[in-house]
Amino acid sequence: MSGRGEDLDVLQGKKIVLGVCGGIAVYKAVELLRLLTRAGAEVFVVMTENAKQFVTPLTFQTLSRRPVHGELFDLISERDIGHISLAERADLFVIAPATANLIGKVASGIADDLLSTTLMATRAPILFAPAMNVNMWENPIFQGNLQKLGALGCRILEPDTGPLACGAEGKGKFPAPQRIFEEIEGLLHDRDLVGETVLVSAGPTVEKIDPVRFIGNFSSGRMGYALARIARLRGARTILVSGPTCLRPPAGVEFVPVTSAEEMRRAMLDRLVEASVVIMAAAVADYRMAEPFPQKLKKGEAEGLALRLERTADILAEVGKQKGGRFVVGFAAESENLLENARRKLVAKNLDLVAANDINQPGAGFGADTNIITLLSADGGCETLPCLPKETVAGRILDRVAAARRR
Ligand code: CTP
After folding, report:
1. Which of 69, 148, 249, 254 is deepest in the core (most CB within 10 A)?
2. Across all residues in the chain, what is the average pLDDT?
3. Which of 258, 345, 347, 373 is the pocket-test mutation for ligand 1 (most atoms within 8 Å of CB)?
4. Does domain 197-406 fall into CATH 3.20.20.140?
5. Could you give the CA distance from residue 275 to residue 200 in angstroms, rounded to a whole number?
């Protein structure tokens, strides 16, 4: 998974006002700006006077490719925003870092500079990412202000806990720009899966041969992680059961790490009661060692080695048997007779939708950033998608899920 959202078009052309207040975290707001512009957003930066003490407006101007706003009255003469104020044009305001001073001003209705004035004038959603010293964060006056803004519908991104720039340790650390970016995506995304609980499996399973060796497969987990990430962005409560991968779990997703097929089976069946949608994207081992060696296997004199394997349980078939009113999606990785095999799995495992891919095609399947899938549905539908980034494929699968749940 890219984790940066380049493949998602949710930010494409969105007008975001990035309000930057004075604090050491200003340098991290530069990275946030970069993530936003790379994802196609039009970012209008408004800096307070104090913010300019930390990083010059030139940095923000260069990266946003727009003049940085700071003076209350310069907007009137600003041609490229066509005399329409930032407050009216914005799809979203993000204040990062947000200081105690700015939050106090907004909560008290004070508008004495460009940032606080545009915040007062906007009807766009507002996201505050506060960063400050731990004592300021815990100050009851500040906490009261924060609660007031939260109750008024502003979104507050809690800071991290850790060593702070002032030398203290505690809560108040500016979150990673990637986390703020993902929060922004969530705020701007269609939320057509609100009320659903999506249970997704991802990655390979790993079956022990002896204490140091295993039987695995080439699944990277990207397809399942993309599904979990986008389900979450679209408002679903999302549970991700994952075999070992190198990927970072997407923000806001309940993460259940597992290793073997049997562990994955137990985790999936445990969480099934909570789910309204199940998507089985994991590449589950079909066989495991009948008796794993308790000690490291020595090569000895033997020229060859035969391992005795036994079948694992088919998790998806078990889910299909207990399906109830759930919408269940499976994958079919095939190297021949794609449609025939996929349709057989759809019926045999009692699925609503199967995403079939021919693993021999370049750009499809294990390890790739893209996938080429054919969606076969229980009602007889069949649609082949072009070669698309896995996040886009995830979006298409979830479109089907959302449409079915609406029905
Ligand atoms: N699956 C599962 N448990 C298994 C094997 C597969 O839940 N033990 C799921 C996969 O996650 C996928 C679907 O079943 O959603 C199809 O998996 P696939 O490997 O394509 O096929 P198999 O069912 O294993 O059948 P075959 O090996 O004959 O292709």
Report:
1. 69
2. 91
3. 345
4. no
5. 10
